[in-house]
Amino acid sequence: MQELTHYIGGEHVKGTSGRFADVYNPATGEVQAKAPLASKEEVEKAVAIAAEAQPAWGATNPQRRARVMMKFVDLLNRDMDKLAEALSREHGKTFPDAKGDVQRGLEVVEYCIGAPELLKGEYTDGAGPGIDMYSMRQPLGVSAGITPFNFPAMIPMWMFAPALACGNAFILKPSERDPSVPLMLAELMEEAGLPKGLLQVVIGDKEAVDAILYNETIQSIGFVGSTPIAEYIYGTGCAQGKRVQCFGGAKNHMIIMPDADLDQAADALVGAGYGAAGERCMAISVAVPVGEETADALIEKLVPRIEKLKVGPYTAGDDVDYGPVVTAAAKENILRLVESGVAQGAELVVDGRDFSLQGYEDGFFVGAHLFDKVTPDMDIYKKEIFGPVLSTVRAGSYEEALKLAMDHEMGNGTAIFTRDGDAARDFANRVNIGMVGINVPIPVPLAYHTFGGWKKSVFGDLNQHGPDAFKFYTRTKTVTSRWPSGIKEGGEFNFKPMD
Question: For residue 497, is it within any domain?
Fold first, then answer.
């Protein structure tokens, strides 16, 4: 049985708490490794080492820090397949999806190569008589990130790449369910030239999270996960005087207008609803066709597409559509919500409850499910399922469809499929959701824009990556200077009598 480690001070360090979490192979259900769960003392040791290493790094020319990011990008491309294989083995994603996970993190690193430009301050000459003013963006010191299981490469890079580019040290607390890739990323950062001690990886559970929250040295915390935990981390972290950004759950609606290309919409729904087994915070989990005719036609197109989905382990080839969910507990929760949908009166059009994969009966595979005639009072509508389950809520009009998305407490992402530019423009302007797709089912912004939802999907006032990241990981210092008048002409050698 492999025993994983923390990564502290540039070395793999065995856990000392005596507590471990099982790391499964989701395809087989077998425990393949044990991950150490850090104690408060282990977290504090990592923070102390980071705090010692940070001042020299913060004083390093931003261009030199950017060169480390350049080299890191090269190494990510070199080891892309190795990283993706490790990710698939622990998470269960298909191999192409795992490579996409790494790639979207890599793109944020590429953006961070622009740190010298992004960290430039402002200057005002002659703000007053002989007075100049200028501002500087300076690192916070030590920052921390608490990242989820569903994107073990992308989301850590969303956090540590801009934090390090800004001159901070970083404590990464990845999910204990699939921590191998974050450990590999830390090794690659140091191979790229990052001094030891600046990127620490500490695996843990709530004890490690609380140690981060209450550590006085840590100045900022980023989090991605469920809304209840986001609320806890945000409230506790802010109460300790830290800068905190937390991203919670989602319930993403896709509105399908009567004029939409239904083949395009159906393909988009299948990819966005069932890709990665639905374990994405930007997955489309609610389809909202407008009008009964649209709804009937959409269901007719969806059913054969969903029934043809190929479910299997990542080792079965690149034509697998999605793999297992991450744990047995996740599978049980999904199926429990499916049963609640049936009990509460939704029509289960595609029933994946009896799905079993020959040779992988002990794996955490969940069949695809499609519900029709779902209503907003049902649990499958209100709760984030995080599995391969698509709910169809029929709307009588555009206004009713818009209201569904706007009334839900989550506000991460949404989409509209239509040929009508006026409807699309109205939707984008009015909907109270942070990321909007127009004929795009998963509207995740590229690295040079920012990622973030609204309502109970986010806690904090700055988004992930893009320009907001450089604001989040720095403080602005403003200097006002006046220099007294001196001799500009040089020395005088003649005797000058007293006045």
Answer: no
